[in-house]
Amino acid sequence: EAGVAQSPRYKIIEKRQSVAFWCNPISGHATLYWYQQILGQGPKLLIQFQNNGVVDDSQLPKDRFSAERLKGVDSTLKIQPAKLEDSAVYLCASSLDPQGGDETQYFGPGTRLLVL
Amino acid sequence: SQQGEEDPQALSIQEGENATMNCSYKTSINNLQWYRQNSGRGLVHLILIRSNEREKHSGRLRVTLDTSKKSSSLLITASRAADTASYFCATDSGTALIFGKGTTLSVSS
After folding, report:
1. What is the DSSP string of B21-55?
2. Which of A38, A48, A103 to mutate: most B Cβ within 10 Å?
3. SS3 sequence, A19-88?
């Protein structure tokens, strides 16, 4: 079974530029998550999708971050404009059916973003 | 907001020894999960324990949960160099999964 795919793996940009990350979840997984992990900390949820609808985006800085999940499969996370404090690893995860009792989340390798 | 807090922040042991990590949290939970993260990689799910369970085993892993003390522990027995990684607890209260800052485990041969 293929895991969660993310691209790019690394990205270096200057502040005020824009950047986009892509995620392809495990086939059949209805729920998709984007996390931000700053160095030395645990992942922090940015947004959660159930199919193509947003379940939780309370921690997403909506003035600069946006995310979409087209057709309930792939997802894109965008930052525009980027700030120095956005330097972090952006992790995508998916799960089969958290409402149905299967809460295990499967993580992709992450995209490491450096904002200069 | 940080729900789970792991202790210790860092742990260094020799191969063959046991490693114990603790996690404390603040609010009631549905379940608590432990994840491992190797350097530069994504997180890997290790084990999930529900609020009505007290202990769970998976291979060399043993997890306990004390809801009265709002704490959990992860025991790795007979550690190996390959166990070197960061370990995170994550609490599920029915909304978002909230991760702690993690314990960095170093196992030397």
Report:
1. EEEE-SS--SEEEEEEE-TTS-EEEEEEEETT-SE
2. A103
3. EEEEEECCCCCCEEEEEEECCCCCCEEEEEEECCEEEECCCCCCCCEEEECHHHCCEEEEECCCCHHHCE
Q: How far is B81 from chain A, CA to nearest CA, in Å?
A: 21
Phi, psi of B102 (to 5 degrees): 95, 155
From CA A108, how far away is CA A24, in angstroms rounded? Answer: 9
Conformational region of residue B11, where left means phi above 0, alpha means psi within -120 to 50, and beta covers everything else: beta
Q: Convert the pLDDT of each residue in B44-91 to its tens digit.
A: 999 999 999 999 999 999 999 999 999 999 999 999 999 999 999 999
* Distance between CA atoms of residues A94 and A25, nearest Å: 6
Determine whether the interchain pair B96/A48 forms a contact, defined as Cβ–Cβ distance below 8 Å.
Answer: yes
Would an 8 Å CB–CB cutoff place A43 in contact with chain B?
yes
Q: Are B54 and B67 in contact (CB under 8 A)?
A: no
Q: What is the pLDDT of residue B39?
A: 85
**What whole-number distance in Å separates Cα of residue B67 and Cα of residue A36?**
28
Chain B residues closer than 8 Å to A110 by CB = 41-42
The whole-angstrom separation of Cα A26 and Cα A61 is 26
Write the single-letter amino acid at B84. T
Name beta bridge partners: B57: B62
Asked if residue A41 has pLDDT above 70, the reply is yes
Question: Rounded to the nearest 10 degrees, how much is the dihedral formed by the CA atoms of B99, A90, B48, B37?
Answer: -90
